[in-house]
């Protein structure tokens, strides 16, 4: 089967397009998704192909985007609602946390909410404090919604297709930094290449330390693993892919082998992905632990505009490698 | 009241050519990667909207806006050097390089800042106006908001509260026809945007041709006077973006209808030309030629100097600079590594 390098944005576009072709209940809405062709070009050409009924530009009304998707999904459509960036999903946090995630529960299973929120996430390029969030853990805090965060094109493709077909609400975040990044993808995957929701993936095998990451953190972990290999340290990279459900079995399996762990994330350090994984590891893997668990995250500060201090605040492969060196 | 003196008109001309020179220079610098980042929203084309309306204010009044804030900063008299240094993220920038293009502000000028979340600054405006009302001062808060932002919940909640609490805000809706790529009529059920404010009981001063600084000024004077004495007022400024939404906007290359529209606005509704024509017809072209030319030359000089100043300034690069001002340093806070780090001076 022919394999080609594909940018993550193209893989997402392809998944979304195929699902729209497959099921006419699927429609997209969001700011600038139609005429502008998508802020991140994910919905490029969609208006032309599917028309205004199924490709809907919205006003700058995040609260309504978040809530309208819930109603449409309850009534039987399958909305894929885009937040231009995840920063603006904060305005819809109530609709997401209180309605998308809870209507099924508080009516004891009477309704289902088969929607997907897509949101471009992450920081860098001097986007400045209010436009520089990678807050996936905040959304993953709430039971009732799943949160998927792909690290490459093929994963994004299979994860999004599953998210759209599943009957639960899903927040699907797309790292802005990964959109243009090419990674290998077979041309012919059939119609039904679906990656199970909540299943993680070993992105690199190694016996000395486990690096746990998601989305852009996987990139840093893989780069760090290459740096470490030069010094004879073999890192295993576990990409969780989903913050909810969380594939801890995969982490435990790796940790039993390496007995050491560094957690890598793009977001802030307090009450974070790293906190959660570290807590679960010490609770369940205490007997296998040979060193303190380390976390590499952004500095605990809002992100500044100026580029050198911005970079100072961000995690990178060197910081990951340095954290590993402290425990091997 | 609303008949501007010759000096005022000349001052407006000075402000408008300075803004245009500054904005076009920013555009150029971005193309040359001397200004970096992803967001840069220019005020070119909007000049008369800000200049005419802020001329109705006095020094103790307040101003707040969104991310399209360079022009507002310059009108208020912020130092072009500090503004340009902020564009480049330099230590000498008005926000120490932390804010960039979208976050200019100046305490000294009662400029409460530019804000990047659409609509997010509107309740802040109401809060600033509340302080004046609360303390019995008659200062007003002039608040600029885009057409697209009128569809956001923030707009409706903030305007409604300004109405029930009689807050002295002048809500200026800068209707430039688009929020990013979305025409007003595709985003708003009510296309006369000032009527949305009217629905909350806010006094509307209607729509104004905001390419004409004199018309803007005349209406702003009435609205400011009303707000000082009674409560919130709204004005809808009809204007246009000469440099698109921001530096990422490629629509004008792709869409012939939009580029034709832009050309038309530049040709027949150029705010600087319109002001110049008014000055010349009132005060004689020859009589003002020299001073207008001087303002143009000054604008070029001031902006060129600001670029040199900004480029000669240092980028902040220390951990202290990164962490500083996350919090107020305070004796009331238990000292932990974290609280000390974030308050570092
Ligand atoms: C809550 C929120 N949603 C979306 C955006 C992205 N965005 C930035 S500016 C903008 C358009 C705003 O248009 P308008 O209010 O008309 O102001 P203009 O840019 O025309 O001055 C959008 C959608 C944002 N910054 N904040
Ligand atoms: Mg607009």
Write the topology of this structure.
The complex is a heterodimer of chains A (328) and B (345).
Chain A lengths: L2 E5 H15 L3 E5 L15 H5 L4 E3 L4 H13 L3 E6 L9 H8 L2 H4 L9 E6 L14 H5 L5 E3 L4 H13 L4 E6 L6 E5 L14 E4 L4 E5 L2 H15 L4 E5 L2 E3 L3 H11 L2 E4 L8 H12 L9 E3 L10 H7 L3 H11 L1
Parallel strand pairs in A: 2-3, 2-4, 4-5, 5-7, 6-7, 10-11, 10-13, 13-14
Antiparallel strand pairs in A: 1-8, 6-12, 9-11
Helix pairs in contact in A: 1-7, 3-4, 8-12
Chain B lengths: L5 H26 L15 H8 L7 E5 L3 H6 L4 H8 L23 E5 L5 H14 L6 E6 L6 H12 L4 E7 L2 E2 L2 E2 H4 L6 H5 L4 E7 L3 H17 L3 E6 L12 H4 L1 H13 L2 H13 L1 H28 L6 H5 L13 H7 L2
Parallel strand pairs in B: 1-2, 1-3, 3-4, 4-8, 7-8
Antiparallel strand pairs in B: 5-6
The structure holds thiamine diphosphate and magnesium ion (MG).
Mind explaining what this structure looks like?
The complex is a heterodimer of chains A (328) and B (345). In chain A, 36% of the residues lie in helices and 19% in strands. With 328 residues, chain A is an alpha/beta fold. Chain A has 2 domains: 3-186, Rossmann fold; 201-325, 3-Layer(aba) Sandwich (Rossmann fold). Chain B is built from 15 helices and 8 strands. Chain B starts with 5 loop residues before the first helix and ends with a helix. The longest helix of chain B has 28 residues, at 285-312. Chain B folds into 2 domains: 6-314, Rossmann fold (3-Layer(aba) Sandwich); 316-345, no CATH class. In chain B, helix 2 crosses helix 9 (213-229), helix 5 (121-134) packs parallel to helix 6 and helix 12 runs antiparallel to helix 13. Chain B has 345 residues and is an alpha/beta fold. A 6-stranded parallel sheet of chain B has the order 2-1-3-4-8-7, with helices on both faces. The chains are: A alpha/beta (328), B alpha/beta (345). The A-B interface holds A 31-32, 35-36, 39, 57-64, 87-88, 91, 125-131, 299-302, 304-309, 312-313 and B 36-39, 89-90, 93, 95-103, 115-120, 148-149, 151-154, 179-182, 186-188, 251, 315-319, 321-323, 326, 338, 342. Thiamine diphosphate (TPP) sits between chains B (41, 68, 116-118, 146-149, 174, 176, 178-180, 245) and A (31, 60, 62, 84, 88, 91).
